[in-house]
Amino acid sequence: MRFVDEFRDGTLARALAREIAGALPPGRHVVLMEVCGGHTHTIAKHGLEDLLPPGIELVHGPGCPVCVIPMGRVDDAIWLAEQPGVLFATFGDMLRVPGGRGSLLEAKARGADVRMVYSPLDALALARRNPDREVVFFGVGFETTAPATALTLLRARAEGTPNFSVFCNHVAIAPPLRAILDSPGVRLDGLIGPGHVSTVIGLEPYRFIAEEYGRPVVVAGFEPLDVLQAAAMLVRQLADGRCQVENQYLRVVRPEGNRRALAAIDETMELRETFEWRGLGQLPASAFRLRPAFAAWDAEARFELPADRVEDPRACQCGEVLTGAIKPFQCRVFGSACTPEHPIGTCMVSAEGACAAYYAYGRRAAGPPAKVPAR
Amino acid sequence: MSRAAQRKPRLRDEIITLAHGAGGKATRTLIEALFFEELANPLLGELGDAAVLDAAGSRLAFTTDSFVVRPLFFPGGDIGSLAVNGTVNDLAVSGARPLCLAAGFIVEEGFPTDDLRRVAASMAAAARRAGVEVVTGDTKVVERGKGDGVYVTTTGIGLVGPGVDLGPARVEPGDRVLLSGTIGDHGMAVMVARGELQLEVELASDTAPLHELALALAELGPALRWLRDPTRGGLATALNELAEAAGAAVLLAERALPVRAEVAAACEILGIDPLYVANEGKLVAVVAPEAADAALAALRALPLGREAAVVGEIAAEPERLVVLETEVGGSRLVDMLVGDPLPRIC
Fold first, then answer.
1. B328 touches chain A (CB under 8 A)
2. Domain span at residue B294?
3. Helical H runs in A220-328?
4. pLDDT, tens digit, for every residue of A292-307?
5. CATH class of segment(s) A71-172+257-302
6. Which of A148, A343, B134, B343 could form a disulfide with A348 if both were Cys (CB 3.0 to 4.6 A apart)?
7. How far apart are CA B345 and CA B82, in angstroms?
8. Nearest CA-CA distance, residue A167 and chain B, Å
9. Is residue B182 domain-shared with residue B326, that is, in the same domain?
10. How many domains does chain B have?
11. Residue that finishes a domain, picked among B113, B133, B164
12. B6 contacts chain A (CB < 8 A)
């Protein structure tokens, strides 16, 4: 497959691994955080940790939009889905996320009309086809998916669709990174920056990480060679004593981002004063809500949501996983009470969640668990 | 081995969800913790594709399968051909020559007669191709809104040849894993045919009868150890079931897995791993190492096996796990299918 196979070449991967090992100062232990769940998935799916030298440790960041949604918001989504006449549209990976009272999938099995869509525009189309129903779209994601929700809102306004609204849970990528860098005992030497969100926001929002916190950032693509090259660029910066925001994902990310996408977000959404993040608590100016001009399409304005706060389950250590404090297999319920079939924490739900990736791809203990014996 | 998987299966769900029908872990738990507990008997306990019964000196394979695919008609097949081939294939991978089928239809009030005729005609064509006939059947009609057009159940009987002895217990370290062709064609074709993805790609289901491939492999005698048609849950789930039942490891090489470029591209866009996508005309076989070349040649000599490949081997360790050597040079586990974000496909 063109544009994919080239980035999975084993010979080039080994060359990059040698380059990383060569640039790593002897005896140095380097901790890199891949911010994005997509990177976590790539690392686990392709077994990249097998290729990295032992001096490189990867910790997994908060960039999984499903994983950071607090349970109370999931309960609100379920409440919306169960209102008479509501047709609730959501991305597939939110279906199994547990709230305080089950998941959307269970609500669907009990009779709620929950539909999986691939785009918010599909939800708007559902509203057009079902004029007697209230269609609510579960807006979830970083600035990556927020523009699609924004464009859908603009279209809903242009078409005057009366029976469509968005339950907005879009979040911003920079605030959780600052929260992690501020957390006590954080041990990070550099960050593999998220690729697709950077197509929208560009490189500027990461500058504070280099300038205020003294950690280099390399924005990276999602194929195995992208991640390895980003690790090589970070190790090179550390070896050279540089601390910069660099762009490995040149074929997709422009330094200035996508101004039209940002404008669409800005036209339809504004920052909330504060928003609760799973595992990170309340973070100021970290999430979006619809602007008052879009109240007619805002589920939070159209429905009296219960908006109850739900404590994370006591056993769940998603917060420590999301901040890189522990590895997924170090969580006390990983693989026992918390599995992909019966997740307790959000990190076990989405394929991009660090726990789900570790569980599915066999990182169930320290070190490579299951090497392929030589033929 | 994870702590979770060592425990006796326990059904924790209070209600049935679509995941219980997806063919992965939840289906397995439902069968073992509910159906098997209530209906327990030694033949059912083997959890094979078909039960093999002793009947007056001959061995009969006996199996049943229900089909609820949507849409009913899709490129490469329809619910009729799928229902015939599905049951023929469950018999074939038990080492049996299919003898005859029964068919049950649950039709929704209002369903067009012409469509029902199309389904029946397609069943007849598929049955002719597989050398079987539908010799008995049943029809029920349910109220409008209580069905999804038509559901079809087929049941089949086949005759297991003398000397055929297949099963996970016969699988040994060093044995080779063969696949009769590309994976993921059926599941992706049906998903695209639903028209919800707006992908402009032409995919066709691989639905086909596998009895000729299976009988050709049976010629290898005791060197043929195990056969399966990896339907719902895909190759990953079939091989996990093998690893578990055989107490062995299955080692797969990613670069050896045949996947059609269009299927690979559609999977890539949707974030789906072709290892978990359903097949309806593919066979996975375990054979003794010294018979691997002959088995490959036997498969490739038949039209349905032209793209057959050796995709992996059996090892003693890590027991009960499937391990994939990735294209880029790492390794990872391949788990069973968990949950089901995918539409109904068979």
1. yes
2. 168-333
3. 224-240, 259-268, 299-302, 318-322
4. 999 999 999 999 999 9
5. alpha beta
6. A343
7. 10
8. 21
9. yes
10. 2
11. B164
12. no
